[in-house]
Design goal:
By secondary structure, this protein is α+β, with helices and mostly antiparallel strands. The protein has four helices and twelve strands. It is elongated, with a radius of gyration of 25 Å.
Length: 206
């Protein structure tokens, strides 16, 4: 094949990973045709939110669509004849991952849909000039156990193997090439040198 195929309409409508509400997330709630019930609310530390007429709802660990269905059920008949509720995420503090190491902007970033390793590194500004793309780590806690995966981001970029999904609470660390940094430092001091500088980078003998 001489070129990449063009995306089809269905490629833009495939479902993304389900999002689960967490403590301190901020969401907007709208009841169609009832502007008085339009609210932007923040889930509290215990994972609950309060909504007019129906009181407190357990929100943490549930999808927005599930919470919308519960609000509809509680409103139906007594307060609104046929409620249609829409919930959208405005801000998340619970669904985040950390990108550290040799990237342009190390930090904490939200995960609101499907995200992969390559996308996460790109969100953090991409690798630096000193990055070692052969040495990228994902740390993940599952079921009380900690796991570490070692990935070659350069190989992923070339399409040698699949770009792995990353998840909230993952920690991504991009390694640094000590040789590249050493080379940069040497270039800075070479103009001051009065004799040639010879380095043994690799011993080929036994």
């Amino acid at each position: 094949m001489g070129e990449l195929p063009s995306p089809e309409p269905a490629d833009y409508t495939r479902p993304t990973r389900s999002y689960f509400i967490g403590p301190n997330d901020r969401i907007s709630i709208e009841v169609f045709g009832v502007p008085e019930l339009q609210r932007e609310v923040q889930v509290d530390e215990s994972g609950r939110l309060a909504f007019p007429l129906i009181g407190v709802i357990e929100a943490a660990g549930r999808r927005p669509a599930d919470i919308a269905m519960e609000i509809e059920r509680r409103l139906r008949g007594r307060y609104v004849k046929d409620p249609q509720v829409t919930i959208n995420l405005k801000e998340t503090t619970s669904q985040t991952l950390a990108v550290d190491g040799s990237v342009a902007r190390p930090g904490i970033y939200p995960v609101t849909g499907r995200m992969t390793l390559q996308r996460a590194v790109a969100v953090a500004g991409g690798p630096t000039e000193f990055s070692d793309l052969d040495d990228v780590i994902i740390r993940r806690d599952v079921g009380g156990n900690s796991y570490i995966g070692l990935y070659n981001l350069g190989a992923i970029r070339r399409g040698n193997y699949k770009d792995p999904d990353v998840f909230p609470s993952d920690i991504i660390v991009v390694g640094e090439s000590k040789q590249r940094r050493l080379f940069r430092d040497l270039l800075q001091i070479l103009p001051l040198a009065t004799t040639p500088l010879i380095l043994l980078l690799q011993n080929g003998g036994n």
